[in-house]
Automatic annotation (TrEMBL):
Protein name as annotated: TauD/TfdA-like domain-containing protein
All copies of domain TauD/TfdA-like, residue ranges: 23-240
UniProt KW Oxidoreductase keyword: yes
Signal sequence interval, chain numbering: none
Molecular function via GO: oxidoreductase activity
Gene Ontology BP terms: antibiotic biosynthetic process
Regions crossing the membrane: none
Record key words, sorted: Antibiotic biosynthesis, Iron, Oxidoreductase
Protein's UniProt keywords contain Iron: yes
InterPro entries, per the entry: AlphaKG_dependent_hydroxylases, TauD-like_sf, TauD/TfdA-like
Length: 269
């Protein structure tokens, strides 16, 4: 993660849909952007009510283990949680690229993360498009894609976790990604040799984004991986998870230049 750089074009500019109001941005435009690229960035979300209202326009917001009564989760440093497995988001250290809810059978499809207060130092968001990672591996190491797509090759989570795979193929040549890189990811010996290739590909395609208060990103959680740099100060973000209120095909289309179409995974059949 320390090698992450900001890739042109600037992610904030490339995926911005402007300032949120009661009628803007247009819901159809946001839905179209999410279908096409899996990511939008919005301004003007100041306060919990604004974040929740915007989230509710595009998803059915679902509660989380750590969410507050309004179903939003306040992401901040909590000293008693920082060193606990599975609670790194509540620490102040760096957070490796991952899928939110990787340890549940069906991770939430959408995630909205809004900045309420930025850190004094560090705390940048790191975003990686799983489609770019898949294409990179298909070009550089096709065997890695094949092995990382093997069913039941990695266990994510603790005792109540989920046995799955990094890449899941769906009918029509679409693929989704699921990943975590902490101590709660236990890899099959057959897959372990390819994990370094995966991590290198994730780092190569990582974008650094510093959100200011009122800014937020909304992403397809089964396409984009998110992470964070270590920070100092009272950094505070608000997160909403849920299922889309609009049609959204599972996964992403495989980059045509790679020619890497996988057989449909049993999990997706």
């Amino acid at each position: 993660m320390r090698g992450a750089i900001t890739h042109p074009p600037d992610l904030l500019a490339a995926h911005s849909v402007g300032t949120a109001t009661a009628s803007a941005p247009d819901d159809a435009i946001v839905a179209a952007r999410l279908r096409e690229t899996g990511l939008v960035i919005v301004d003007g979300l100041f306060g919990r009510s604004a974040v929740l209202a915007f989230a509710a326009r595009f998803m059915t917001v679902v509660p989380h283990r750590d969410s507050d009564p309004d179903r939003l989760t306040t992401i901040r440093h909590i000293s008693r949680h920082g060193d606990r497995p599975g609670f790194a988001g509540f620490g102040s250290g760096e957070l490796a690229a991952h899928t939110e809810g990787s340890a549940v059978p069906v991770p939430p499809r959408l995630m909205l993360l809004g900045c309420e207060r930025d850190a004094d130092l560090g705390g940048e968001c790191l975003l990686t498009d799983g489609r770019a990672v898949h294409a990179d591996l298909q070009t550089r190491c096709p065997d890695a894609v094949a092995m990382l797509s093997g069913p039941r090759t990695v266990y994510f989570g603790a005792g109540n976790g989920h046995l799955s795979q990094v890449f899941t193929a769906y009918p029509g040549g679409r693929v989704s990604v699921r990943l975590r890189q902490d101590g709660l990811a236990r890899w099959s010996p057959l897959v372990s040799p390819y994990v370094p290739y995966l991590r290198e590909a994730v780092a190569r395609h990582q974008h650094t984004v510093r959100l200011s208060p009122g800014q937020a990103y909304l992403l397809d959680n089964r396409r984009w991986l998110h992470a964070r740099t270590e920070f100092r100060g009272e950094r505070r973000f608000l997160r909403a998870l849920g299922e889309p209120r609009f049609s959204l095909a599972e996964g992403f289309t495989v980059a045509p230049e790679t020619g890497g179409v996988l057989p449909t995974s049993k999990e997706a059949a």
